[in-house]
Amino acid sequence: MKDDFTGGRFPSQLFGVNAAWWALMVLSLNLQMVMKRTVLGKAWLPKRMKAVRFGVITRAGRLLCHARQQVLRVSQAFADELTAWRATLDRLHPAPA
Fold this sequence. Notes:
This protein is of the alpha+beta class. The protein has two domains: 1-58, no CATH class; 60-97, no CATH class. The protein has three helices and two strands.
């Protein structure tokens, strides 16, 4: 918590602000742990937040802008991985009928 989610420093001198910030930090830590366990898979479990961030967010891709639309082109392997993650999320929380 102290390193990955900057739990070692408080943003303010005010107790209420720090308490709200701490609660948000703990919530985001728990959400990240649930995401790693249920969606990303066993290979991501031992990784810290920085590794997850760089492993998922900083994938190579090309952003194409054409006819007022933006399309992100990624490799087929990453597209398959994203599809599997999306299918897992859909199984956990199906769309309302």
